[in-house]
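Reopening this ticket.

The earlier resolution said the output was attached, but the attachment link was broken on my side. Pasting everything inline this time so it's all in one place.
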Amino acid sequence: MTQIMWMDNLAPDIQEEILFLPNTVRGRDPIKEAEIRPIAKTLDWNRQREMWRAIKDSQPVNPNQT
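Inline output:
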């Protein structure tokens, strides 16, 4: 339960993006919960968006494609 409670601290648009991330077909998820946790600890939603954008920009466009 505590693993998802921190998500309440995220900006609503980030929550929505996380909820609608594509399913991982094989391998590991490209974005890990441990990467999102520091964002949730940041109270400023604008700063959260900057941090979230940095994580997304470092990931492949479609990790399920080969």
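Reporter confirms the inline version is readable. The CA atoms of residues 38 and 51 lie 9 Å apart. The first helix runs from residue 2 to 5.
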